[in-house]
Design a protein that fits this description.
- The structure is a single chain.
- It contains 20 helices and 20 strands.
- It is of the alpha/beta class and about 500 residues long.
- The protein folds into three domains: about 5-100, Udp-n-acetylmuramoylalanyl-d-glutamate--2,6- Diaminopimelate Ligase, Chain: A, domain 1; about 115-320, UDP-N-acetylmuramoyl-L-alanine:D-glutamate ligase; about 330-480, Mur ligase, C-terminal domain (Protein-Tyrosine Phosphatase, Chain A, Alpha-Beta Complex), CATH 3.90.190.20.
- The strands form four sheets. Strands 7-8-6-9-10-11 form a six-stranded parallel beta sheet, with helices on both faces. It has a six-stranded mixed beta sheet with strand order 15-16-20-17-18-19, sandwiched between helices. A five-stranded mixed beta sheet has the order 1-5-4-3-2, sandwiched between helices.
- Strand 13 and strand 14 form a beta hairpin.
- Helix 6 crosses helix 12 (about 290-305).
Length: about 500
């Protein structure tokens, strides 16, 4: 895109101090909000973060090779930032807008307009977005050229940045859309304008931000807000809010699941090895365990058949599925670990416990449960509910980590002594690691489940090698890990890095 065209789309003031005339030659070949990741010819978008201001990094971006910077009018007019002088000194170009976040989103939407043949697919929901996106991309990618968000670039900044990866050779774009505030899904829908839009589920993730599951359902429904009548909405057939989600939509509504997918045949559970899924009469070995991963697989298949792609492509995509870090990872060894600690909410925590309970396991079951965060006023009841689930579980020992899990501890301690499960509570990572090291032994099954800030993956070394040397170095590292309950205070992030976060 060239700067003249972009300035017209954004209604931006264009100031260039480069040798080439920006009206004719000036343009950009990449977009970044991080001055440390600038490539020559990039457009640097200066965002005002909660801790720092990206406008402070404009000079660094120009020196790193940025061709232009998108800046806010308030900062441009503030002599303390001296943005015009910076651009003049470095030979850069400035595009001045009222709001740089909106500018980034509008620029991404305009960029997508350059690819009218791209089939745009959006995915949102309280959980399962990334797994569903990756499986769908594996299916569709067998027969079509696919582009999709890297990792979990699904936020107000992440999705627009991902959109700029679209190239003329791509036939299908699959983008997950997350939120951590009201109105965010609507903004992302305005950027992507999906032709196929899927909701994975309506859960309690971030209920502390929106206040209720009803409010979460309203927010997630905004993924359909740009429908004009020709688009397709995919909604889980067993979702409690399915009728609300489907009501009043312009376009086709399809309910997906075990009943709604006529191509789906038998499902054979193979425990931690995953399952065999029969699709149009032939089986595919799907390697991710648990009912929740089956739902993700069916969501991906629902997308793939709408594109459409062949049954072979769908089966091959299922067979290629691999777990991602902290999402249903099964680490086999003397001790088997289910590392499901990328994030946690009440639904996913209960499903992780249910998976471990469902296994035919000859050894002991050890459940390490970290706090579930961002639940607001619902936190206490959510943890008490989890406590009731744990009290009825098949665990031989339960470890609770983080202040929020005290509510679960209260429930577990009320169980009669004769049927009470052994339980250990702490909010200190050193104490937790020391206790686990002294308990876990070969043959155990260990579940690590908690919100991202708990960093339970740091226990992997201990639970996979009980009694191993080097524990002191590990626990010193874990005890001081930023963001961990009981650890050191979290260090400030730069404005650029702080604004790109995967959210649900």
């Amino acid at each position: 895109m060239n700067f003249a065209g972009l300035s017209q789309v954004l209604g931006a003031r264009l100031l260039s101090f480069c040798r080439d005339d920006p009206q004719e030659k000036g343009g950009f070949s990449s977009v970044s909000i991080d001055s440390r990741s600038i490539r020559p010819g990039a457009l640097f978008v200066a965002l005002k973060g909660t801790l720092q201001d990206g406008h402070r990094y404009v000079e660094a971006a120009f020196k790193a090779g940025a061709a232009a910077a998108l800046v806010a009018r308030s900062r441009f007019e503030d002599p303390d930032y001296a943005l015009a002088e910076t651009a003049r000194k470095t030979g850069g170009t400035l595009l001045v807008v009222e709001d740089t976040l909106k500018g980034l989103q509008d620029a991404a939407g305009a960029y997508l307009d350059r690819f009218p043949g791209l089939l745009r697919i959006g995915i949102t929901g309280s959980s399962g977005k990334t797994t569903t996106k990756e499986i769908a991309a594996a299916m569709i990618g067998r027969e079509r050229a696919v582009v999709f968000n890297p990792g979990n670039f699904n936020s107000e900044t992440g999705l627009p940045l991902a959109v700029f990866q679209v190239r003329s050779g791509h036939a299908v774009g699959i983008f997950e859309m997350g939120m951590n505030r009201q109105g965010e899904i609507g903004e992302l829908a305005a950027v992507l304008r999906p032709q196929i839009a899927l909701i994975t589920n309506i859960g309690s993730a971030h209920i502390g931000i929106l206040g209720s599951k009803e409010a979460i359902a309203r927010e997630k429904k905004e993924i359909f807000s740009r429908f004009s009548g020709t688009e397709t909405a995919l909604i889980p057939e067993d979702e409690a809010y399915r009728d609300f989600l489907a009501a009043g939509l312009r376009g086709q509504v399809r309910f997906y699941g075990k009943c709604g997918l006529k191509e789906l045949g038998m499902i054979r559970d193979r425990g931690l090895e995953g399952m065999d899924i029969f699709w149009e009469g032939a089986a595919a070995r799907f390697g991710l365990p648990g009912v929740y991963n089956l739902r993700n697989a069916l969501a991906a298949a629902a997308i793939a058949r709408e594109v459409p792609v062949s049954a072979d492509a769908i089966r091959e995509g299922l067979a290629s599925a691999k777990p991602f870090f902290g999402r249903s990872e099964v680490l086999k060894g003397a001790v088997t670990v289910i590392r499901d600690c990328y994030n946690a909410n009440p639904e996913s925590a209960e499903e992780a416990v249910a998976l471990c309970d469902s296994l035919s396991w000859p050894g002991r079951r050890v459940y390490v449960i970290g706090s579930m965060l961002e639940l607001g006023d619902c936190s206490g009841e959510a943890h008490r509910r989890l406590g009731r689930v744990l009290a009825l579980s098949r665990a031989d020992r339960i470890y609770l980590y983080g202040g929020e899990t005290r509510a679960a501890l209260e429930i577990l301690e009320k169980v009669p002594a004769e049927s009470r499960i052994s339980c250990f509570y702490t909010d200190d990572m050193e104490e937790l690691s020391r206790s686990i090291e002294g308990y876990v032994r070969p043959g155990d099954l260990v579940l690590l489940k908690g919100s991202r800030a708990c960093a339970l993956e740091d226990l992997t070394e201990i639970v996979t090698a009980p009694g191993a040397t080097g524990r002191k170095d590990f626990t010193e590292k874990a005890a001081g890990k930023p963001g961990v309950p009981g650890g050191k205070p979290k260090e400030p992030e730069s404005a650029e890095r702080a604004t790109v976060k995967g959210v649900s």
